[in-house]
Every structure is written in structure tokens, then in C-alpha cells.
Design goal:
Elements lengths: L4 E6 L2 H9 L4 E4 L12 H10 L4 E4 L11 H16 L4 E4 L10 H11 L3 E4 L9 H11 L3 E4 L10 H11 L4 E5 L7 H8 L3 E4 L6 E2 L20 E2 L4 H12 L4
Parallel strand pairs: 1-2, 1-8, 2-3, 3-4, 4-5, 5-6, 6-7, 7-8
Antiparallel strand pairs: 9-10
Helix pairs in contact: 1-8, 3-4, 5-6
């Protein structure tokens, strides 16, 4: 993986295409980004791979909520990883914690075995772990290639101090990828404060209005705080602005 690098976080085909056109080096493919992301469908991966030439890593998260999984959920995750591997995914994006907030090493080993030779990113379950530096060591020992993190803060800029220490301790053994709240107006500041050279962003620019003409008021299909008539989409120009900054970090 050549650095600096920008990864587009996308949950639909139009966003994947916009991120690639905007300069993404890699995609993280999800479903349901409005709830933090869940495992996408295999059909969506097929569509994205047909439309995009850049590597695609797939989020493996069976549900919204915590990262404490039972045996049935782990079995489901193993099966999904193997299926996405066979479909040509570049990597798996995973994370499992123990009830005490430590990285669940045995469960991670199970999932990584299913991944075979794919890249493995430890996702933001990292940010819910008790000790970020101990978790860094366990992830490196497991052979994870990347940790996606906000520095255990509300966003990556707020977590800059922890991110900087993670980069120092990682010492090139594992990539530290800054995610959460990454935008064109803060990428350079995050880099300058932390030394991070790998960034993760949706590249959104506000919500896209639904094409629905008739709109039923007072009925919600999901979270009441979210409108049924607003779509979250990557904006090509917004992503291009982010990518230009990231790719110019070494200039």
C-alpha cells in the first residue's frame, strides 16, 4: 500500500463511483452508513467491482450496536468474509471486543483465518476498547494491516494526541488510518498534529434530496431522527478536494 492514501467510505454504487472519480485510492464498502455501517450485500460488491478499478475492502459487521458477538454472529461473519474473499474483495474490515473492552484475540483469529491472504483492517471497535495502546499491540501481533481510528475521540481532530502516539508506537508495523469527521478543511491539521498519512472519509457534502414527489408525513421506517427523504451520498467534487490534499502531503 503506497502512502499517502485516501479511502472512500461508501454504501452504494453511486457513492463508490463518485469516490473513485474523485481520487480515492481504495474503498471501504458498507451498508447503512447512517447507523455506522453494517455488512453490505454480495450483489453490491459485484456491482462496485464491475464499475470501479480500485481495491475494495468490505466491512463485516452483522448489526448495529456493540462489538461483543455471540457464536452465531461470529459464524455469520466468518461465512461472509469467505464469500467476499471468493468474490475478489481486497480486504476485510473487522473488530471484536470482549465484555471487558479488550480486543477479543481468539475471535479475531477466527475471522482472520477466514480472510486468508486478504488485508485486514481493525475498524473503530478500536475506539471503544479500554486501552488504545494495548489494543494496538494486539492488532499488530495478529497481523492486521491497518487500524481505523478517531483516536478514541468524537472525531479525528479531537483525537489528535492519541493518534500521534499511535503513529509513534506503531513505528511502521501497522498503518494508522484517521477516520470520523475527516474533511477537506481539517486533513492537513490532522496530518500536522499526528503524522497520519492514511485517511478515511465519506466525502459527503450535505444530504441529497429524494426523488419522491409524494411524501408521507409522520411515518418513519427507521430512526425518527433521520428523514426518509434524504439520501447520504459521496460528492465527487468534495472527495476530489480531500484527495488532492492527502495526495499532496509529501509535496
Amino acid at each position: 500500500m503506497e502512502l499517502p492514501l485516501i479511502e472512500g467510505c461508501v454504501d452504494c454504487l453511486p457513492s463508490a463511483v463518485a469516490a473513485e472519480k474523485g481520487g480515492a485510492d481504495r474503498l471501504e464498502l458498507c451498508a447503512n452508513l447512517s447507523i455506522g455501517g453494517t455488512t453490505p450485500s454480495r450483489a453490491l460488491l459485484r456491482q462496485v467491482k464491475e464499475a470501479c478499478a480500485i481495491p475494495v475492502n468490505v466491512l463485516i459487521r452483522p448489526r448495529f450496536g456493540d462489538f461483543l458477538y455471540d457464536g452465531a454472529e461470529l459464524g455469520q461473519m466468518e461465512e461472509e468474509i469467505a464469500a467476499f474473499r471468493d468474490l475478489g474483495a481486497n480486504g476485510a474490515v473487522i473488530g471484536v471486543l470482549t465484555p471487558d473492552g479488550e480486543l477479543d484475540v481468539p475471535s479475531m483469529k477466527r475471522l482472520m483465518a477466514a480472510a486468508g491472504g486478504m488485508e485486514v483492517t481493525l475498524h473503530r471497535a478500536f475506539d471503544m476498547a479500554r486501552d488504545p495502546f494495548e489494543t494496538l499491540e494486539r492488532a499488530a501481533e495478529l497481523g492486521c494491516t491497518t487500524i481505523l481510528t478517531s483516536g478514541q475521540a468524537a472525531d479525528a481532530l479531537a483525537g489528535a494526541d492519541v493518534l500521534a502516539e499511535l503513529v509513534r508506537r506503531a513505528a511502521g508495523r501497522i498503518h494508522i488510518m484517521a477516520g470520523s469527521g475527516v474533511r477537506k478543511d481539517n486533513i492537513r491539521a490532522i496530518h500536522e498534529k499526528t503524522g497520519v498519512r492514511v485517511f478515511h472519509t465519506t466525502g459527503r457534502r450535505g444530504a441529497v434530496d429524494s426523488g419522491m414527489i409524494y411524501r408521507k408525513e409522520g411515518v418513519s421506517m427507521g430512526l425518527p431522527s433521520l428523514s426518509e427523504y434524504e439520501l447520504w451520498r459521496t460528492n465527487e467534487e468534495e472527495f476530489r478536494s480531500c484527495a488532492a490534499i492527502v495526495h499532496g502531503l509529501d509535496a
